[in-house]
Design a protein that fits this description.
By secondary structure, the chain is mainly β. The chain is built from no helices and 7 strands. The strands form 2 sheets. Strands 1-2-7-4 form a 4-stranded antiparallel beta sheet, with no helix packed on it. The protein starts with 9 loop residues before the first strand and ends with a strand.
Length: about 80
């Protein structure tokens, strides 16, 4: 998204073991678009569900070890949750 590789856009992230859910909150101007990548560690399936609030998120590509997600901001802040199987 940016030269700082998300250093400005990522405002919060949290992992919840009980639900195997990664939550990431982003901040950008409404109408902005971008991508983020996540590492999928050993022992986790590349199959996950994606939910977003404040914008649209879609998995662009995924492998056994990483995924690329596109974001379109409808609001200033977008929250993405990735729930791993």
């Amino acid at each position: 998204m940016h030269v700082t590789q998300g250093g400005v856009e990522v405002i919060h992230h949290q992992w919840t073991d009980a639900t195997r859910t990664l939550q990431i909150d982003f901040r950008r101007r409404p109408g902005a678009r971008g991508k983020f990548w996540i590492h999928i560690p050993p022992g986790f399936a590349a199959n996950f569900t994606l939910d977003s609030r404040g914008g649209n998120a879609e998995v662009l590509s995924s492998t056994a070890t990483s995924a690329c997600v596109t974001l379109e901001f409808e609001a200033r802040e977008v929250m993405c949750e990735l729930c791993f199987e």
